[in-house]
Specification:
Layout: H1 9-27, H2 31-36, H3 47-55, H4 63-84, H5 86-107, H6 117-127, H7 139-158, H8 165-189
Length: 190
């Protein structure tokens, strides 16, 4: 009989934490999302502001928002976790959360940001770097960047909704930068 394998510890832990935060948000009528899992303009003297800079990636507005992010995360993250390792990929998650949280805080004072979209788009761009050889830029990276960034930039200019498209772009840029830096670090060690 086959046993279950916790094959991607970071990915699965992130999924479970996000699911727990979703349930908690539903049970508290969104109070926990506002307190811990959304970035918005608040005093930097408050320790909760700093928690939110990282915690916002665990919060989701509703089940549909959660499902959209988690389905992509569960497909794209495990191979990246296998390639880079859980600790290294966690660093990518943390840096992407911080960068997107800080930028949202500075650029959009009247709105709140929550959700794992920045992390998901970081992973999408990171995965497009798979198979990269030193000194070469993968065509997959260029195509994903063209299609993805084009779609997001179009949405920023022409679509009015509650989607933080600029933070998707930021996540994608974080993934690209992280991929190049991680591969450079790995090639120096290798």
């Amino acid at each position: 009989m086959k046993k279950l394998q916790y094959n991607a510890p970071l990915t699965l832990s992130f999924f479970l934490a996000s699911f727990g935060v979703l349930i908690l948000g539903q049970l508290t009528g969104g109070l926990t999302d506002r307190l811990f899992f959304s970035v918005y303009r608040a005093s930097l003297a408050s320790p909760l502001s700093w928690v939110r800079f990282f915690g916002h990636v665990l919060g989701h507005a509703d089940l549909e928002h959660f499902m959209n992010n988690m389905l992509l995360l569960l497909v794209v993250a495990p191979p990246m976790e296998e390639k880079y390792g859980s600790k290294t990929l966690l660093l990518g998650f943390v840096l992407t959360a911080l960068v997107s949280g800080l930028l949202h805080y500075l650029l959009f004072p009247g709105t709140a940001l929550l959700g794992a979209s920045g992390i998901v788009f970081m992973l999408i761009m990171l995965s497009s770097l798979s198979g990269m050889q030193e000194g070469r830029i993968p065509i997959t990276l260029l195509l994903v960047a063209l299609l993805y960034l084009g779609q997001e930039l179009y949405a920023i200019v022409f679509v009015r909704d509650n989607v933080a498209n600029l933070m998707h772009v930021v996540g994608g840029l974080c993934g690209t930068a992280f991929g190049f830096l991680a591969d450079r670090t790995r090639s120096r060690r290798g």
